Amino acid sequence: MEATLSTKKGFSFGLWESHGSAIVTSFCLLFIILAYLARINDHFFLEITLFLFAYLIGGYQKALEGLHTLFKEKDLDVDLLMVIAAIGAAAIGYWMDGAILIFIFSLSGTLEGYTMERTNKDIRSILDLRPEKAVLLRNAKQVPIKAEELKKDDTILVKPGERIAADGIISQGYSAIYQATITGESVPVDKTVDDEVFAGTVNGYGAIEVKVTKLAGETMLSKIIHLVQEATKEKPPNQLFVEKFEGIYAKIVVLTAIVLMIAPPFLIGWSWKETIYRAMIFLVVASPCALVSSIMPAILSAISNASKERVLFKGGAHLENIAGVKAVIFDKTGTLTYGQPVVQEIISYEGTPEMELLKITASIEALSEHPIARSIVQYAINNDLELEHSTNLRSLQGLGVEGSLNGINYKVGKKDMLDNIALTKEQENLALKFEQQGRTIIFVSNEQSLIGMISIFDQVRLEARSVIKQLKNMNIRVALLTGDNEVTAKKIGENAGIEEIYSGLLPEDKVEFIKKMTTKYGKVAMVGDGINDAPALAAASVGIAMGAAGTDIAIEAADVVLMADNIEKIPFAISLGKRTNRIIKQNVAFAIGVALTLIVLNFIGGIINLPEGVVGHEGSTVLVILSGLRLLR
């Protein structure tokens, strides 16, 4: 069965195999027609010769693959069972029946190859987005170069209509960039100096110069390609079980067929010819082709569908897991909010000028990847401040950072980092006022006292409330986990429509909470984007990372990646998982039902003949594959 072989090889069915299989099937049919014409004209020798050609052309590839499995892997598969059944039919004079078996078997493989080609086409099309060449600007000259040879800090020229060859920052020029392939945005996005662009996206109307920030293997497009390739290789537990079951089942079928070829003449008085014929039909209809094909076509179709929606599953197992999710836990910054915090107020104390406070804070935060740190650094750069090199830097996960400037030690982060430094009542009230407005407060202190506060505001995503409502309508529990303070967390939660809010959590606290939720509700999904979210993403039944704004560590730890950072796709992903599981169950039930029906019809009254058994068996295989392809919609 082509489906069986393709399943074992990850459905690597290409255009050549698909077209080649169609040609073989056509010639097989041609020789069967010619053999039938020779039969009705009583040319016995010519008839048998033509049938032999049909057998060889239509069945040699399956015979080779079946023998390879038998002798190299010490196992039986359905390909060998089909060939044995056809040869057995010919041995007792049923040349036409055996030839029809070979033809329909070959036709089924061709149809499956075609359907799987459709599934894989969407996945392979992503590979075509990889730019192969770039124009490097070197010494004021344009030098053609392979995209994979680009290095960090190289500057490339991208002309209108060309694909951008690398992730980078625009250093000169402005244009509109078509970046639907990466972010899913349907309209071009205006980009100018200092804006980020991605490899594989298309430049619009203006020539731009781009400073390369990532090597070819590190680009966002490379991440997408890697994730999709890994997803198609990884098989879900139920598929692994079926493949293991197939080998055992095939041996049982062969042993049963041998018994059926021997026992009936002695027990129920059948002729040897009838006995062998019925045993051959049993070999065909009892083969697990449809059962094996019930799972992977559906899984790959669902992964392909999700990838078109910029949702990347790292494997079929995660499709199964997300279908059973009972609770979705959100991080705050970068998930429920846009992850683009903006500095609102700078309040300085101890005679420290505001710009000096900003310079100190940005210099300490310069190496941090946290969105709040990046916003402070960017704000300082926008104010033409020249940052200083800090020393003795130390990150306290979930709290902030500390470091030294000009021999003075500073701490930047949450109030908990202030140690023994007490706030005045006025400072406490001001901080509380900002927090009640949904802002995050960054405290800055030296070794003796608080020297200032910076308030940060990160807007809640416009779609957040709608997403939370959809999840609740699906009877899924929703909670917010954040390291932020209780007042700010509550304000953000209220704006998003979340009642269950847990604040002031360190990364290890989030992991512990995920474990408790898993024990209580079963499968739990965690949505995050930062380094401090990675442990919780790994601990959850399904980790969902933001692909564009998320850190590499978060993406690596997650099972599902939202490449467009669109949390609206979370209900879609869960629904897709549920639909996939439902279709797989339908396929399995249908495959088993058809097989049992054909077996009963074969032995009770001999109602079906070999061609009818072949049509029923192979037809059910094609139908379950077509059923799986419904997930492409």
Automatic annotation (TrEMBL):
It comes from the Bacteria. Signal peptide: none annotated. One of its GO terms (molecular function) is ATP binding. This is Heavy metal translocating P-type ATPase. It comes from Galbibacter orientalis DSM 19592. It is a multi-pass membrane protein. One of its GO terms (biological process) is metal ion transport. PANTHER family: CADMIUM_ZINC-TRANSPORTING ATPASE HMA1, CHLOROPLASTIC-RELATED (PTHR43079:SF1), PROBABLE CADMIUM/ZINC-TRANSPORTING ATPASE HMA1 (PTHR43079). PROSITE patterns: ATPASE_E1_E2. The chain crosses the membrane at residues 20-37, 44-60, 80-108, 248-270, 276-300, 588-608. Residues 129-229 form the P-type ATPase A domain.
